[in-house]
Specification:
By secondary structure, the chain is mostly beta strands. The protein is built from one helix and 24 strands. A nine-stranded antiparallel beta sheet has the order 7-8-9-10-24-20-19-14-17, with no helix packed on it. Strands 4, 12, 13, 18, 21 and 22 form a six-stranded antiparallel beta sheet that branches. A three-stranded antiparallel beta sheet has the order 1-2-3, with no helix packed on it. The longest helix has 6 residues.
């Protein structure tokens, strides 16, 4: 296995796998692990990056002008090696660029830089998409980190909850489990004011999805145990997911979402898709601040 890349300070150590630029571990100075245990009985990923799509496309088909391309759920960034372009004790930047294989399924030039840095008790992650091509670049991007549930500190799993920055009274969206496509309409929210108690039963129908989230930050944890304060100022959508019964919960800021059931339009016209002009860049930040028990 390729060696993990470690960055650290006196408070936190993060380990990143260069395959997919995937965060595998986030540990505090006392050895508390804040990421998934990746139990193969549930899900072996840790924190895949979703690019150039979030979720599934109808029939796994990306439509660009008059041409159809086959592009699998969540795109290909998570299935490709990144190159390290900068590495210091507390910081690393990894890069993925287009090549002949990516252009077979996504006919665009791109550069995706993924930066990780530890600052005090915070892990800062910034994904930057750059368009080096000569046509506008349509894309979506999402984070998919799986945090430990329960978190370190000894609090009961059933006591964990998510507290949003703002009230979130709107209906949530759900997906068709067999296809991964977004269902029309909405379902009643499990959020009461700003708080959502966590329970495996929430995820029997798969992910909870907010396509028009008011909040740009939230906290996850339990009284008497550790908390994570998570900020995602550049992402207007959110997914929360687990395989019921697993020892993790995924908190996923997104720019974009799966195709709506029956969607037949072009990729560039889909809600949530960014159209990046030639020579332009767009960044998506996610900060995870650790509050140990």
């Amino acid at each position: 296995m390729t060696d993990l890349i470690a960055i650290a300070n006196d408070h936190l150590t993060a380990q990143i796998h260069p395959f997919g630029a995937e965060l595998w571990s986030l540990v505090d100075a006392d050895g508390g692990e804040y990421m998934t245990d990746a139990d193969p009985a549930f899900w072996t990923a840790h924190a895949p990056l979703l690019f150039p799509i979030v979720g599934a496309l109808v029939d796994d088909t990306l439509r660009v002008d008059a041409t159809a391309y086959t592009l699998l759920k969540h795109g290909f960034a998570r299935r490709n090696p990144f190159t390290v372009v900068e590495h210091a004790a507390d910081r690393v930047v990894l890069r993925l660029v287009d090549d002949a294989r990516t252009r077979e399924v996504y006919p665009f030039a791109f550069q995706l830089d993924m930066a990780f840095a530890v600052e005090g008790m915070t892990l800062r992650m910034t994904a930057t998409v750059h368009n080096p091509g000569d046509v506008p670049l349509p894309f979506s991007f999402g984070y998919h980190p799986a945090f430990a549930w329960p978190l370190p500190g000894g609090a009961d799993k059933a006591a964990h909850r998510i507290v949003f920055e703002q009230d979130e009274p709107q209906a949530i969206r759900q997906i068709e489990k067999s296809t991964g496509l977004l269902l029309p309409g909405g379902a009643p929210t499990p959020v009461k004011g700003r708080e959502m108690p966590l329970d495996a039963e929430l995820f029997r129908a798969d992910a909870l999805i907010w396509t028009d989230l008011a909040s740009r930050s939230l906290s996850y944890g339990a009284d008497g145990g550790a908390w994570l304060d998570i900020a995602f100022p550049d992402s207007p959508m959110l997914g929360i997911w687990q395989v019921p019964g697993a020892r993790y919960v995924c908190i996923e800021p997104w720019q974009g979402h799966a195709d709506l059931v029956g969607y037949a339009g072009a990729f560039r016209d889909k809600p949530g898709v960014v159209i990046l002009p030639q020579g332009a860049s767009r960044s998506f930040r996610m900060d995870v601040a650790v509050r140990p028990a």
